[in-house]
C-alpha cells in the first residue's frame, strides 16, 4: 500500500506539472498523462497482483480461459463472474426442480449442490474444452480446474456426488471419469448408497423406463438389421432389454476398434435414458456408454 501511495503521489505531481506548465502546452499534457498511466499500471499490476498461471491440461483438451465462480445453480451447473453459465461436461449430478412444474428433486440433490459450492464458489477456475462448447440452453460445456490443477469433475465423481453422463460430441476424458465413478460406487459413497441410483439388472429394466439408468447384464445375442445393431440381453427381443446402435454410431465404435459382435456373450453395463421400444431399450451413440465387466 505504501508503494502504491508513493506511486499515486508521483503521478499526481506529474499531472499537476503538465497542467500548469506554460511551455509545451498540449504535448506536455499528453506525455504527463502517459506517465501517469504508466505509473498506475506499474503500481496496480506489479508482481504481487499477477494472476496464477493456468494449470497444464490433459491431452485432448483446449484452454478456455479463467474466470471466478459467483453462483452455484445445482450440483453440475454454475455461473461465472462474467455472467456465463457453465454446465460441467461429462457428468450428471442429482437434479433440483429449478422451477420445473411437478418436478421432484432427486435424492441428494441439495448435498451435491453444496459439494460443488465447496469446491468452486468464489474461486478462479480454468475452463477447458474437449468437444462441443455450448448446449441447447446456451450454457458452456467445459471441464473445470482449480488453481492447483485439481479437476472438478473428477472430484465430484470421487465423492459420489455425480455419475458419468457423456455424449457422442463430447467424449474427452470419459474413460478417466468412469474410473472415478467406479471407485466411488465400489465404496458406496454419496449417491451409490442410495437405491435411486442403483445399477439395474437387465431382467427388471422395464421398471425404470423414462429415467437415466445404468443397466447390467449378459448379452445373449447380437443382430444387425439394415445397418443397425441390436444387443439383446434376453431370449425375446420383443420384450427383453436391448441396446441399439445406429449406423452412424457404429462408425464411432469401429473407429475405436469395436464391433457390435464383440459384445456377444459378455457381461456389459450400459448407461443412458431408458426408452420403451420392443421392451426396455437404451440407444448407444458412442462406445463409452458400454462397459465390459468381465473379460
Summarize this structure briefly:
This protein has 295 residues and is of the alpha+beta class. Helices cover 27% and strands 26% of the residues.
Quickly list its features.
6 helices, 3 domains, five-stranded mixed sheet, 27% helix, OB fold (Dihydrolipoamide Acetyltransferase, E2P), alpha+beta, disordered N terminus, five-stranded mixed β-barrel, 26% strand, single chain, 16 strands, globular, 295 residues
Written overview of the protein:
- Helix 4 (152-159) runs parallel beside helix 5 (174-186).
- Strand 10 (221-225) and strand 11 (228-232) form a beta hairpin.
- This protein has helices at 2-20, 25-44, 109-120, 152-159, 174-186, 247-255; strands at 62-74, 77-80, 85-88, 90-92, 124-129, 140-145, 163-165, 200-201, 212-218, 221-225, 228-232, 242-245, 267-273, 275-276, 280-283, 290-292.
- The N and C termini lie far apart (65 Å).
- The chain is globular and about 55 Å long.
- The chain is of the alpha+beta class and 295 residues long.
Q: Tell me the number of strands.
A: 16
Radius of gyration: 27 Å
State the CATH topology of the largest domain. OB fold (Dihydrolipoamide Acetyltransferase, E2P)
Helix content: 25-40%
Uncertain stretches: 1-50
| Shape category | globular
Termini distance? 65 Å
Order of helices and strands: HHEEEEHEEHEHEEEEEHEEEE
Whole-number average pLDDT?
87
- The CATH level-2 architecture of the largest domain is identified as Beta Barrel
Strand content: 25-35%
CATH class of the largest domain: Mainly Beta
Strand sequence of the main sheet, in spatial order?
1-2-3-6-5
Number of domains: 3
Multimerization state: single chain
Output the number of helix runs: 6
Largest sheet: 5 strands, mixed, barrel
Amino acid at each position: 500500500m505504501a508503494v502504491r501511495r508513493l506511486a499515486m503521489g508521483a503521478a499526481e505531481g506529474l499531472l499537476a506539472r503538465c497542467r500548469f506548465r506554460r511551455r509545451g502546452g498540449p504535448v506536455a499534457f499528453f506525455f504527463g498523462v502517459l506517465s501517469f498511466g504508466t505509473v498506475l499500471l506499474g503500481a496496480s499490476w506489479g508482481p504481487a497482483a499477477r494472476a496464477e498461471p493456468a494449470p497444464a491440461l490433459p491431452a485432448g483438451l483446449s484452454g478456455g480461459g479463467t474466470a471466478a465462480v459467483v453462483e452455484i445453480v445445482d450440483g453440475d451447473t454454475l455461473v461465472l463472474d462474467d455472467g456465463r453459465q457453465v454446465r460441467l461436461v461429462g457428468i450428471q449430478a442429482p437434479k433440483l426442480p429449478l422451477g420445473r412444474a411437478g418436478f421432484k428433486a432427486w435424492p441428494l440433490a441439495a448435498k451435491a449442490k453444496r459439494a460443488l459450492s465447496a469446491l468452486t464458489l468464489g474461486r478462479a477456475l480454468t475452463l477447458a474444452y474437449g468437444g462441443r462448447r455450448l448446449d441447447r440452453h446456451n450454457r458452456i460445456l467445459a471441464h473445470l480446474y482449480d488453481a492447483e490443477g485439481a479437476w472438478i469433475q473428477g472430484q465430484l465423481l470421487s465423492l459420489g456426488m455425480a455419475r458419468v453422463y457423456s455424449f457422442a460430441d463430447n467424449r474427452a476424458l470419459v474413460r478417466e471419469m468412469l474410473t472415478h465413478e467406479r471407485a466411488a460406487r465400489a465404496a458406496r459413497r454419496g449417491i451409490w448408497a442410495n437405491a435411486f441410483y442403483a445399477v439395474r439388472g437387465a431382467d427388471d429394466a422395464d421398471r425404470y423406463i423414462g429415467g437415466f439408468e445404468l443397466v447390467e447384464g449378459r448379452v445373449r445375442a447380437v443382430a444387425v438389421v439394415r445397418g443397425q445393431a441390436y444387443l439383446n440381453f434376453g431370449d425375446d427381443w420383443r420384450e427383453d432389454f436391448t441396446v441399439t446402435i445406429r449406423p452412424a454410431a457404429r462408425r464411432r465404435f469401429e473407429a475405436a476398434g469395436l464391433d457390435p459382435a464383440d459384445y456377444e456373450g459378455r457381461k456389459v453395463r450400459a448407461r443412458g435414458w431408458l426408452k420403451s421400444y420392443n421392451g426396455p431399450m437404451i440407444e448407444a451413440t458412442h462406445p463409452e456408454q458400454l462397459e465390459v465387466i468381465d473379460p
